[in-house]
């Protein structure tokens, strides 16, 4: 299975152990950004189930690569900012204060491949601060941007709130303010060429249980609204 990083915290704490307890095995999951998942599928890779951005799932439905009857809406995610544990929290309460905090940072870490990083690049262009931020940014190809806080390479990290929370030794400052916020919807479905359809069905069933929804909320996600 391939899953976007956004679910990692909820899975590791609750969904994964519950699935293993009920089924006697842990599912094999490739945790990777949606953009990378889509590239691998376009190259011909096939898996049993997918959890990724809803817009990308729409495209897979159109291409008849997933079974639309199995599709479920999983959770919504917001983008936020984190700092190293114990560091001062900058004011990000308004778009103006948020912009000032980004410009004042020694280095801002963001992911080139992740949905949050793609949106962040668009937001920087909208605010006219792309050149100023990228001159000192710590850009990673994929993975958890908050890891760059723990190594001292950056003092602000941008990512989905749930992805920031995966990394120990950091603190969440908060979500992007006002109309700078971007809500991303995540969906799950079984691929047409799934080899273990029964196992995939059990996995997807876990994703909508009350304990899973509670785990999403505890990890910085919201219940699905799409």
TrEMBL record:
GO biological process, one term: molybdate ion transport
Entries under Pfam families matching the protein: SBP_bac_11
A single MF term (Gene Ontology): molybdate ion binding
InterPro entries reported for this sequence: ModA/WtpA
PANTHER family membership: BLR4797 PROTEIN (PTHR30632:SF11), MOLYBDATE-BINDING PERIPLASMIC PROTEIN (PTHR30632)
The protein's name: Substrate-binding domain-containing protein
Source species of the chain: Roseomonas indoligenes
């Amino acid at each position: 299975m391939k899953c976007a990083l956004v679910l990692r915290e909820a899975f590791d704490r609750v969904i994964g152990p519950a699935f293993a307890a009920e089924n006697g095995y842990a599912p094999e999951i490739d945790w990777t950004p949606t953009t990378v998942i889509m590239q691998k599928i376009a190259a011909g890779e096939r898996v049993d189930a997918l959890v990724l951005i809803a817009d990308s799932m729409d495209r897979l439905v159109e291409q008849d690569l997933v079974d639309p009857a199995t599709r479920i809406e999983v959770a919504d995610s917001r983008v936020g900012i984190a700092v190293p544990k114990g560091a001062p929290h900058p004011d990000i309460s308004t778009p103006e204060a948020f912009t000032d905090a980004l410009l004042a940072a020694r280095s801002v870490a963001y992911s080139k491949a992740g949905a949050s990083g793609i949106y962040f690049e668009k937001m920087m262009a909208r605010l006219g601060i792309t050149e100023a931020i990228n001159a000192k940014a710590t850009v990673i190809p994929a993975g958890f941007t908050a890891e760059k806080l723990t190594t001292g390479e950056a003092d602000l990290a941008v990512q989905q709130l749930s992805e920031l929370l995966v990394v120990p030794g950091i603190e969440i400052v908060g979500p992007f303010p006002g109309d700078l916020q971007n809500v991303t919807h995540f969906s799950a479905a079984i691929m047409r060429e799934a080899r273990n359809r029964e196992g995939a069905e059990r996995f997807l069933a876990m994703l909508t249980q009350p304990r899973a929804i509670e785990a999403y909320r505890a990890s910085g996600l919201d219940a699905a609204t799409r």
